[in-house]
Amino acid sequence: MRCGLVTLVGRPNVGKSTLVNRLVGRKITIASTRPQTTRSIVRGVVNDPADEWQIVLIDTPGLHKPRTELGSRLNRLVYGSLKDADVTCFLIDATQPIGSGDRLIAERVRAAGSPVVLAVTKVDRASSQDVLAQLTAATEWDFASYVPISSVTGVGIEPLQQELAARLPEGPALFPPDMDTDQPEEFLVQEIIREKFLDRLREELPHSLHVRLNDMEEENDLLRIEADVLVERNSQKGIVIGKGGLMLQEAGSEAREELEALLGSKVHLQLQVKVEPDWQRRAGSLDRLGFTK
Ligand SMILES: Nc1nc2c(ncn2[C@@H]2O[C@H](COP(=O)(O)OP(=O)(O)O)[C@@H](O)[C@H]2O)c(=O)[nH]1
Ligand SMILES: [Mg+2]
42 and 183 in contact (C-beta within 8 Å)? Predict the structure, then answer.
């Protein structure tokens, strides 16, 4: 069979995580309109029903100009997984003009040396002329293949999968057939909680937010989950809690509902908002929170 690593790269918000979830067939990584939604390398596995290939997708943080120590660490993670890739899937957004950010990534992707499949995402939101213009502009990069897709309607998803699978090396499966991600459940729990706050917060606050799972314990028929919602400054604490505790309440109950569906159990979710001063900029905090150097 053919099997290997496909690294997804692109600017923040082009739709990498949404595509991974679409290909895997369930949510294993979170998506939002906020930058830096994805902060780690998430692997998702797609198995060919006929067992002729297995694609191991690598979702990555969006490449951007780093402004904090966290930003630099995230970029390094992406460059590292570009080196490991058997195939690179480079995403550009049909609803945004190609910019200097895309060009920089194109250079990096080319330098990494593996075959590149370019996907133009969100075609459900763009006119066919715009999609065509985007495809035409991207041909200057001379990549292996070009596919317009929508992770929402499913357009182009099957062809993209075929293009990726066709370029994988021969080799045994890397994951057992019943495993669709290498992320522990605790990680997804933490991420789902963070996701519920992201879309409710504006400006710099999504960057300052981190969720740390402290405890997950079964008690009779109930799953008790305790997590800290970390912010960087005291002034942010009030915003995350909201007027009369409203934001904390709403985000919490939305997270609880999704966690109950995911874990198949009633959940008691206890969230505490805490300040971890400037954690994005401090190596010690980042180490403690588990961000690789
Ligand atoms: N209409 C539409 N929206 C999409 C599509 N793919 C992603 N999005 C949205 O674009 C935003 C960013 O997606 P995300 O997957 O988090 O992007 P990432 O930062 O590249 O991982 C989210 O609000 C998604 O719902 C698509 O194919 N069509
Ligand atoms: Mg993402």
Answer: yes
The pLDDT confidence band at residue 102, using thresholds 50, 70 and 90, is very high
pTM above 0.90, yes or no: yes
Q: What are the structural domains, with CATH classification, of the chain? A: 2-166 (3.40.50.300), 185-288 (3.30.300.20)
Query: What mean pLDDT comes out for the span 133-153?
Result: 96
* Alpha-carbon gap, residue 127 to 146, rounded angstroms: 17
Contact 190, 213 (CB under 8 A): yes
Ligand 1 neighbours (beta carbon < 6 A): 10, 12-18, 31-33, 37-38, 62, 121-122, 124-125, 150-152
Atom 10 of ligand 1, residue of closest alpha carbon: 15
Region 109-138: mean pLDDT is 96
Distance 222 CA to ligand 2 centre (A): 31
